[in-house]
Amino acid sequence: MLQGHPPLINMAEDLVPQQQLVLLRKRPRHCDHSKEVDDIVVEILSRLPVKSLLRFRSVCKSWRALISDFYFVKKHLGHAFTDTSYSFRLVFLNARPRTVDLQGLEVHDHIRQQDSFAEDILGRSRILGSCNGIICLQEMMFDGIYRDDIFIWNPSTRATQKVPKHKFTKGSRRFYGFGYDANTEDYKLIVGDSNHVAEETKFGIFTLKTGSWRTVEDFQFVNLDGQGCFANGALHWLDSKYNFTRIMSFDLAKEKCEQLCRIVCGTMFTMGIGSNRNCLCYYTYSSIRSMPMTIWVMSEYGKDKPWTKLMNIPTHIVPYKVSLRPTQILENGEVLMILDGKECVVYNPKENKYRTIFQTSAIFRRSPVVLYLDTIVSPEFGSLNM
């Protein structure tokens, strides 16, 4: 997903690499219900939608145990990412939270009201990150001022868990992100701040398995801001401290922050980063309407690896005034974008036209859009079914 600077947004999925998802470990021999459930039943259940699985938990104790089992959750997650019948959804957080079904959007515009969580909280939250169907939110008191309350939420199962308060949950921390550590098979929330006077940066790390916080301080000073983009097992931010822009990465397994690459795009350009099918991307556009928005992709991830131009989008045909934010590249090549924080449009590169999906009078706040997939991943701390 594409993030801006100041934080724009997301363009594709903040996903665990697909190869990590489909390499499912064998069912443990000691699994209590392994003798009760036939492998064929497991295979069938693992391909069913979340709503069906939530109902089938009431069939019997063995099915309830199976559907909550670590092995089964990973198997279902693997099918969700590889089965084309599953559809990604975008959640828009504004005065009236709503979701957009991306699969339906390619055929016809399909929007439905979001009712999976208390709407008054959704309408007063910013998104800290999203991964594998669970979303991290922070509740807002009023514009730009946030409460200590952070929630981990699965919109598909409606399960919600409140993160314990910590010094890093207080106030409006400058940068944050949420992702998956494949080495420990754990989800991590990262929040941090930089002291410009002392030139020091501190990270707070919360892990779902332990349900606890810890602080890491031995980092070089970095000027990060907003929501980090998750791709290839790391969170990424833009750092414009110097006369050029650099992309900083925070490896969730190594818990190490370092420069990934430098990009020189000129002062007249606005820049954002994101991911497309787990490949890191960045885009630039100018206030000069004759210059197109350009989207670049790093096909082979790594330090100072080359970038490939993905597409140009002519901006003179799109009626924005201040900001233009690509959100998602659909399977049919169309691009979902946010104009001036209050209008959602789809650009068709073949016809060189756009169509409006919806408009709102309320300006979208920071990180107002997130992509998710229906999964049964649990947000509960200490849970083994992640």
The helix/strand class is mainly beta
Shape field: globular
Q: Give helix % range.
A: 10-25%
Poorly predicted runs: 5-30
What's the end-to-end separation, in Å?
22 Å
Oligomer: single chain
- Which whole number gives the mean pLDDT? 79
Query: Strand order across the biggest sheet?
Result: 1-18-19-20-21
Number of helices: 7
Question: Strand content of the residues, in percent?
Answer: 35-45%
Alpha-carbon Rg, integer: 21 Å
Number of strands: 26
Major sheet summary line: 5 strands, antiparallel
Brief summary:
The protein is mostly beta strands. It has helices spanning 18-22, 39-45, 50-56, 61-67, 70-82, 102-107, 119-122; strands spanning 3-4, 88-92, 98-101, 111-113, 125-131, 134-142, 145-154, 159-162, 175-181, 186-195, 200-207, 212-219, 226-227, 229-231, 234-239, 245-251, 256-263, 269-276, 279-286, 293-298, 308-313, 324-329, 335-339, 343-348, 353-359, 369-373.
Tell me what you see in this structure:
By secondary structure, the protein is mainly β. The chain has 7 helices and 26 strands. The protein has helices at about 20, 40-45, 50-55, 60-65, 70-80, 100-105, 120; strands at about 5, 90, 100, 110-115, 125-130, 135-140, 145-155, 160, 175-180, 185-195, 200-205, 210-220, 225, 230, 235-240, 245-250, 255-265, 270-275, 280-285, 295-300, 310-315, 325-330, 335-340, 345-350, 355-360, 370-375. It has a 5-stranded antiparallel beta sheet with strand order 1-18-19-20-21, with no helix packed on it. A 5-stranded mixed beta sheet has the order 12-11-10-9-13, with no helix packed on it. A hairpin with a 5-residue loop joins strand 22 (about 325-330) and strand 23. It is globular, with a radius of gyration of 21 Å.
